Amino acid sequence: MNSQGIVYDLSFEHQTPGDCLGIGYAAPRLSWKIRSSSPFRQTAYQVEVSFDGGDRRTLTVEGDRQVLVPWPVEPLRSRQRAVVRVRVAGEIDGWGPWSSPAAVEAGLLHERDWTARFITPEGIADLDQPAPELFHTFHVKDRVMSARLYITAHGVFRATINGRVVTDSVLDPGWTSYPHRLRYRTLDVTDLIRSGENTISSLVGDGWYRGYLKWESRRAHYGSRLALCAQLEITTESGKRITVGTDEEWRARSSAVVSADLYNGTIIDYRVDLDDSPIMPVRVVESGTERLVAPDGPSILPVGTMRAQRIWKSPSGKTLVDFGQNAVGWVRLHVRGLAPDGIVTVRHAEVLEHDELGVRPLRAAKATDTYILDGPDPRTLEPVFTLHGFRYAEVTGIDDLMIDDVEFVVVGTALSRIGWFVCSNDLLNRLHDNVVWSTRSNFIDIPTDCPQRDERLGWTGDIQVFSPTALELFDVSGLLVGWLKDLAAEQYPDGGVPHVIPNPTFLEHDPAACAWGDAAVVVPWNIYLSTGDDGILKRQLPSMTAWVDRVNELAGDNHLWQGGFQFGDWLDPTAPPDEPGKAKADPDVVATGCFARCAQIVADAAEAIGEKAISVRYGMLAALIRDAFVEAYVDDDGRIASDAQTVYALSLQWGLLADDRQRDGAGRRLAALVREGGFHIGTGFVGTPLLCDALTEAGYPDLAWRLLNQTECPSWLYPVTMGATTIWERWDSMLPDGTINPGEMTSFNHYSLGAVVDWMNRCIAGLAPEAPGYRRIRVAPHCFEGLDYVSAHHDCPYGRIAVDWRRTGDGIELRVNVPVGVTAQVRLPGSDETEEPIIVGNGEWVWHTRSGRVIVSRPCS
């Protein structure tokens, strides 16, 4: 039997497998997956690196490492391109074949690589003026062999060369901590350059840089002038490099984009004749290139379209469109003639209220696109430099709108889907789909809270609780790596963490808040657990320790974090609509519990990267906090102050209790609270991700199952029964009578409360990581009554893991697929927890069990 390993999906850092253009690392780490038709264990690997000019290096390394392997040769220089192949050897058949080649090309790694300068238009492009177009004409005499465009903006850009848009991505360069880090894009534009005269141009919009941000109706947080920095480098057949960079020779003019704002939408006036627009000079803005960085994650792209499901007239006579799914993007209209008054308007909302567009949750965001037409010719209308979160649209100015005239352009960061779950329960399937859609909608370059109202910010608390689920569903690692760099850059000198990252009000100082500031510690730890990347711990450890030190200072000698501002168990269902922080769980109990958890994570992270002294220091601190927690808040029988579901869940899950008596008592009390509550949720942002796990590990998995299946409010399935297609911010964002919750914070697309999907995958399907990067997994499904089958798949760094179980006539069939490099510990349904697990390596395995007894066990070919 051939046991050679076939290498595939060669990738660099946290980028998508395949060619990688413009990477910001001189020594990018390599990862690969291995396919084998029989049991295989890598014992060595070879990396072949070929540079332009014919220089080729091959390195052989003993060992089984295949994820984030160190770059094997000298670091790349700026612009340098290398082609990499990998092959691996096993214990039996020796070297397998070489992988398909993957190219990696460095971006501009140093400030000195930039000769272009930021330029801004003179006399135009002020606030409330049309978006400017900056342009330049240049000549190329020889045949073009390659061309790279390195480009960024103070604002967002849409660049063209010779009238052709240079990239499908939108809202480039995205949103970073502009005072510290400004991202640039590297684009291959070889096919767009021609011999002779060429024109490069770029439209520049407000974006996050100058647009409205947060809820105070303020804009221009980072600056009042838009600017562009573009460096086009062309290599000709003769070997000559031509550089065309933004400088004083460029020119500018106003465009037909009257306004474009992320919250308010776009106004485009097609009557504007660009040929009549005055040509204006530009001036150099002497700042910016020292902060330029390459992207760590993918760009924002149109990722698909959705057809309209229904068009009808509302009671007030408005034309409404239902796309059937709440998502993010914009409406594309195909107009067949001139509107009655020449104006077409599209308004957006997530829900209907009283059969009209439900715009109240948008708060100050207008979410409206307006087009002023210039004549009767057919035209396709769509906005620029904006995004909307919506399911429904109201269209005015077109009397005979047809289904084929309108479509939803779905937009999001181009994340790879890596996690799937499906079962025999349709409500749970819809719940899982809702979480997937909310994840797509709220990873728009950064992890946001919501995509529709006047907010859309990188709230630290939201991603702190949701990061395990996000990392399970999508490859968000690169995006989060970049976001954590911003967090570290914006962390206050005292170690405190802003409530949102990037922080547009960076001159203010947010008070330290548990669960929110904890993102500095928890998110890098979760990336490490999901991907095995210890580099993220090395880079973020100073930020992690700074946060814990800040909390330690606030807690003082008694190690209890008490008083001061806290969000607490945000949006606990008992909290009044306008006081979402007034939860049943005592905020001091929650804060001290978070403090202990973060100290322990820092100790574990330091241990993982060999920082022994730091590990010992924070391990001792964590022990002191746990002792103080028990002394202050827990009685001998495990009863905890404030007697709320959340305080028991966090105490059990974070190991805060002193002994088995307290743990057993806390578990019993949590189970009793769930029963007394009629199996309704009693937790907010902090407790919700922990609740089902706490019940399961305390010995009450059936209660967790009943809690999950509750359909009355508050519950996970109540929104599903109300027609939700995404996760709501509140358990009751829509009231049973179809009216919108009167609370100020009412979004219908928030991922936080969907963190239960992590438990569904690990406990119902039984697919759980046991070591960082899924190097070891635990397969132990709970085959709950009422379920006939469950199937879960996860594309871990080593390949696809699949766990499928289904009921048969006389028992349960369990199938497990394990990729090369992963070891699975399998506990069969119904087996005794005291029994040793079954250990298997790569391959597909199947077991038939009856009452926990194995009837058939075999590997599948």
From TrEMBL:
Catalyses which reaction(s): Hydrolysis of terminal non-reducing alpha-L-rhamnose residues in alpha-L-rhamnosides
Annotated Pfam families: Bac_rhamnosid (PF05592), Bac_rhamnosid6H (PF17389), Bac_rhamnosid_C (PF17390), Bac_rhamnosid_N (PF08531), Ig_Rha78A_N (PF25788)
Enzyme class: hydrolase
Domain Alpha-L-rhamnosidase six-hairpin glycosidase: 417-764
InterPro entries hit by this protein: 6-hairpin_glycosidase_sf, 6hp_glycosidase-like_sf, Alpha_rhamnosid, Bac_rhamnosid6H, Bac_rhamnosid_C, Bac_rhamnosid_N, Ig-like_fold, Rhamnosid_concanavalin
EC number annotated for this UniProt entry: 3.2.1.40
Keywords in alphabetical order: Hydrolase
Domain Alpha-L-rhamnosidase concanavalin-like, residue spans: 314-410
The Alpha-L-rhamnosidase C-terminal domain, residue ranges: 766-835
GO MF entries: alpha-L-rhamnosidase activity
Residues of the Bacterial alpha-L-rhamnosidase N-terminal domain: 143-300
GO biological process: carbohydrate metabolic process
Annotated signal sequence range: none
Superkingdom to which the source organism belongs: Bacteria
Coiled coil: none
Protein known as: alpha-L-rhamnosidase
Source organism (scientific name): Bifidobacterium margollesii
